[in-house]
Structure prediction request, 392 residues.
Amino acid sequence: MTNRRSFGSLSARNRSQICEPVYLDGHSSDVAVPQVDIMQPIGVAMKVLIVGNMGYVGSVLGPHLRQSMPHATLVGFDNAYFGQALVPGSTLPERFLDRQIFGDARDLHPGLLSGFDVVVELAAVSNDPMGNKFESATLSINRDASQRLARLAAEAGCKSFVFASSCSVYGIAEGGARTEQDPTAPETAYARSKVETEDLLAQIDTDMTITALRFATACGYSPRLRLDLVLNDFVASALRHDEITVLSDGSPWRPLIDVSDMARAIEWAASRSPEQGGRTLVVNTGHNANNFQVRDLAMAVKEALPGVTVSINTEAPVDSRSYQVDFSTFARLAPQHQPLCTLGDSIEQLIAGMRSAGLDQAETPSSPLIRLHELQRLTSTGQLSSELEWIA
Ligand SMILES: NC(=O)c1ccc[n+]([C@@H]2O[C@H](COP(=O)([O-])OP(=O)(O)OC[C@H]3O[C@@H](n4cnc5c(N)ncnc54)[C@H](O)[C@@H]3O)[C@@H](O)[C@H]2O)c1
Prediction:
């Protein structure tokens, strides 16, 4: 199956339009949506704890929440695996928070949760290769610590718990876009950790609103950039080597969401009313227009950076992940918090950000921006144990 979406207008997009709700194919949602999101009156002075705030997503979320909720008290909690993996020239994203706490989410003290209205759980071993290498830590951090955190938050009287799940729970999904009602088929420890956590969260007996956001694959610029995400990787190789090598036949489907739109979705989930989606909600988080095949992502980057060559391995074995996802529920529940960034916007912002940080030079090491490499370095130097606990 081919993606017939045209990328013709990508490079012509005016920067003033960036992140306006304009889609590549002139798409408009086919779902009838109300005009407003129904939010809880949690109050302007809400207290928000973001666990795992010092990663790729958290480094965009903190500044975003500071802007959208200027009077909120924002507290971060993280064990700083990637604390120093900042893009050169960036300022510390944690300066937008009121307080930063360092610690391991597996040992988070229950007393710490007292007084918080919202807990956002981002802490995780955050992709398949890391999950394969550190399987036991993946289950203890992503699943067990997340479940414990939600239970403690409920006991502490917290009103809302937001869990960062993933569309990778759909595995290899042939035959159309997957809805939340479709069966999951997790292929990896990482995907299993997410789906098992969703199930455990649903079993917590609480009045707290729980939202598991099944995010599409993230892309876009962050002060703690990751180059182990498909679009970010393509832009980096195009800038550095004038070449993109697609390590498959390019046919797998990957829905994408820009990291800035993840932050907006988390903001919605933090304040959503239980009338919108129920007390406990699992929701695919992305946009129907942003289901792409990997080869189309490569071609979109080539279009933004003419002269780049794309090589696609037509002999490659089938990818273990390929899914199209139906994001209609999210469109219906959160009309004011729909993804705004187009693929072209994300590519433009990555190019601009990487150029200004000097990350477009072939000789710049990319290792610290690849999560698995950083964890392997920290374990090989004896700073982290094989269970990813700090030793030194
Ligand atoms: N990036 C994506 O494509 C994507 C897509 C879907 C879902 N998600 C989910 O969103 C969340 C954030 O992803 P990200 O891209 O920012 O990942 P990331 O790896 O950049 O950041 C994860 C953060 O969690 C922290 N952390 C990990 N284990 C911890 C522990 N035991 N105690 C305290 N802190 C700990 C790390 O130090 C890091 O700051 C993750 O749960 C991830 O699974 C990400």
Summary: Residues 135-155 form the longest helix (21 residues). Residues 44-221+257-289+321-340 form a domain with the Rossmann fold fold (CATH 3.40.50.720). The first strand starts at residue 47 and ends at 51.
